[in-house]
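can u do me a favor
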């Protein structure tokens, strides 16, 4: 079967939004970024974030079909144990249950989705997800989130 190579990343963004929307009913209040995870739930995830109230929603996805690999996890001031910038430029987020997620939010992410659903008419979809502005906004959010959690920083 021929792969649908998308010239624009609009199709990829729409597919990732749909994957997030299936797990989070009030998806409209979150900005979304795609992330590559290295621990906690390694692999592709969509991360929803909002500033008020400050919260992250981590949605691990199967990169083959964009179906959830586990239930989405909300991280906010009621259950966060730590948030850190790690040496490789990524982030580590821990919850009070002991779960730790480590991930990167690249400005550009190459995706190859063998079974992308109805949007691709049964064809695999591949392309480059361009999220330069969203990745920068997420970095700003994470800096603010870390500052809120650090009692030594006055805002």
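np, heres the sequence
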């Amino acid at each position: 079967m021929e792969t649908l190579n998308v010239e624009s990343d609009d199709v990829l963004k729409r597919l990732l939004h749909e994957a997030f929307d299936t797990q989070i009913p009030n998806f409209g209040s979150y900005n979304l970024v795609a992330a590559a995870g290295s621990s906690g739930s390694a692999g592709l995830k969509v991360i929803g974030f909002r500033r008020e109230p400050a919260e992250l929603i981590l949605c691990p996805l199967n990169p083959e079909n964009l179906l959830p690999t586990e239930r989405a996890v909300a991280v906010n001031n009621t259950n966060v144990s730590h948030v850190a910038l790690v040496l490789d430029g990524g982030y580590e987020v821990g919850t009070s249950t002991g779960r730790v997620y480590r991930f990167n939010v690249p400005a550009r992410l190459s995706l190859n989705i063998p079974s992308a659903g109805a949007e691709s008419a049964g064809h695999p979809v591949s392309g480059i997800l361009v999220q330069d502005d969203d990745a920068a906004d997420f970095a700003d959010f994470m800096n603010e989130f870390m500052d809120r959690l650090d009692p030594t920083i006055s805002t």
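The two ends are 55 Å apart (CA to CA). hope that helps!!
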